[in-house]
Design goal:
The chain is an alpha+beta fold and 129 residues long. 19% of the residues lie in helices and 26% in strands. Strands 8-9-10 form a three-stranded antiparallel sheet, with no helix packed on it. The protein is globular, with a radius of gyration of 18 Å.
Amino acid sequence: MTSTTWAGANLTAPLYKVVGDQNQKITIKYGESKAATPLGNETLTIQEDMSTIEFIDHIDNYLVKDTTSGTLAFKLKGTNADTTFNGGLQFVPFNKLNDERYGIYWYFDTKYTESDEKQILTAKRKRTS
């Protein structure tokens, strides 16, 4: 964190928001922040035929323990994260991160429109009846 900005209340924050290979300068003004603007690769696209609600409801199927890691870690599956970020996304306990950037919030989207989702739901209902 070489470039920082001052935000009051004894807070030092990075001057740039970085997500993968994209970055954006953060402006901190009273009452507003550019930090809230999502970068393009901050939205993960769900790869299966399901809505974002279904994906989140079944997150235990997609946030899987990384057995190749020597510590407690999880990998996110079922999204475009593997192709967007070199090696995909790995989640570790927050207290294990020192002097590193970290992501807490991610946006999810599907590759389908709302009308596509209605067709998917109809097809799923036909399969189960």
